[in-house]
Amino acid sequence: MDMVPVILPPTPHSAPPVDSAHRISTGDSIQLLCNTMKKQIISRAFYGWLAYCRHLSTVRKHLSGLFNPNIVDGEGAEGGLTKEVWEQLVKSGEEKDKIQIFRLTYYGGVSHDIRKDVWPYLLGHYQLGSTVEEREEVDKSCRQKYETTMSEWLAVEAIVRQRDKEMMAANLAKLSSESTSGGDVPPQTLGQDLSNDVFVSLNSDDEDDDDDDDDNDEDDDDD
Q: In b/e form, how buried is each residue of 30-46, taking b as 16+ CB within 10 angstroms?
């Protein structure tokens, strides 16, 4: 028995594969965009907080000596450091207690009458509890340092002024040499042009005179 070949029907064309990027709908695109923006905002906030913490740690490290961690009670210090209180502290020898003086100064200030006496102590020029002789010695030493520094600065100032004068003189000499070398004499080309113009005008006048003479001679011959 002969085998009859079976002809199968043609298979339908299958749809081409769709890229995954094309499968994302509009809603998915908006959601992806929102998630990206959310991550960026959180990232910026985190790095801003991190920079703030680093700056704060640097401030705490380098400026830790500017404040007193111990809280000082200000009760009874509202009146400040008055003349009576200062004289009493000096007489009793309690002016060495700088904590008390600083507390009165911080909460109530210093009376105007004794500021010239108190502020040298507050600024560290005098030591609390020092004698009159020690304070005079400090003043003398400070005056000598001031005079030495001033004399050194005056010498430096004289050198600087001398250099400024020399520089000014050099600049003036340079400017004067440039002005003289520039020359007030007009350029050669300009002089040549002027002379050429003069000669051309003279030559043209002579030619005109010759032409007039020739014309007069011809008229005489005709007569």
A: eeeeeeeeeeeeeeeee
Report the C-alpha gap between 31 and 27 in whole angstroms. Answer: 6
Inform me whether the pLDDT recorded for 160 exceeds 70.
Answer: yes
CB 111 within 8 A of CB 139: no
* Count of residues making up the chain: 223
Q: What is the pLDDT of residues 46-77, one digit of tens each?
A: 999 999 988 888 877 777 777 767 777 888 88
Q: Distance between CA atoms of 24 and 30, rounded to whole angstroms?
A: 10
| Secondary structure (H, E, C), 60-78 | HHHCHHHCCCCCCCCCCCC
